Amino acid sequence: MRAALAADRAHWHRRGHGSATLRRGYHAVWLYRLSRYSHERGWRMAAWLLWLLNGWWTGADIPPSSRIAGGLFLPYPHGAVIAGAVGHDVAFGLQASIGGLLKEPDQDIGGGPGLPVLGDGVVLEAGAIVLGAVLVADRARIGPRTIILKDVQIGETVMPQPWRPLPGRGAAA
Questions:
Q1: d(CA 6, CA 130)
Q2: Distance CA 146, CA 57 (A)
Q3: Helical (H) or strand (E) element with 12
Q4: Residue range 106-117: mean pLDDT, rounded
Q5: Comparing C-alpha atoms, which of 40, 30, 112 is closest to residue 74?
Q6: Ramachandran angles phi, psi of 148, nearest 5°
Q7: Distance (Å, rounded) from C-alpha 110 to C-alpha 146?
Q8: DSSP secondary structure letter of residue 124
Q9: For residue 5, which of 24, 32, 23 has the smallest C-alpha distance?
C-alpha cells in the first residue's frame, strides 16, 4: 500500500499539480487504498465504511473490490466510477468512468465478472466511459465523451463519432 501511495504522489508531481495531499482527487485515491487494504484483510465492514466515506467526501465511487495499481491520477473525482482492474500510471479526466455491463456479466478477462481492464499508461479524458469486459491496452488514449464497448489496441487513440445532423430534424417551416 505504501508503494502504491508513493507512486500515486509521484504521478501527481509528474503532471505538475504540486502538493497532492491537499487535493480531493488524491484523497479519493488514498481512501480507496485504505478500503482495499481492509478488504484484503477480510475487514469487510471497515472496507465498505471507507468506501461510503470516500463517496461522501470526494464524490468518487471506487469500490474496494477494484484492483488499481500505483500511479492513479484522478484530479477531479466527483462523478468518477472505477470498477475493474487498472494498470500503472493511469489518468482519469473529469467524470471518466469504467464499469460493468449487464449484457455479459459472467465474462471475466481479469477485472472481475463483466468488468474492464485498463493497461499501463492509459488516459481517459473528460466523460470517457469504458463498459463491459473490455481490454484497453497499454498507452491507449480515450477521447472526451467516448463510450468504449470493444477492445482498444496498444497505443491507439479513440475519439468520439463526429457530430452529424439527424434526418427529418430541420427547422420548422
A1: 27
A2: 27
A3: helix 2-14
A4: 82
A5: 30
A6: -105, 125
A7: 23
A8: E
A9: 32
Place of cell 469504467: 98
Grid coordinates given for 145:
465523451
Alpha helices in 23-84 (DSSP H): 24-41, 44-58
Greatest C-alpha distance within the chain: 67
pLDDT digits (tens, 9 = 90+) for 39-69: 999 999 999 999 999 999 999 999 999 999 9
Place of cell 468506501: 51
What is the spatial order of strands in the sheet that 97-99 belongs to? 81-82, 97-99, 129-131, 147-148
SS3 label, residue 120: coil
In one-letter notation, the amino acid at residue 28 is A
How many Å apart are CA 140 and CA 123, to the nearest integer? 7
Question: pLDDT, tens digit, for every residue of 124-134?
Answer: 999 999 998 99
Amino acid at site 117: V
The three cell numbers of residue 153 are: 489496441
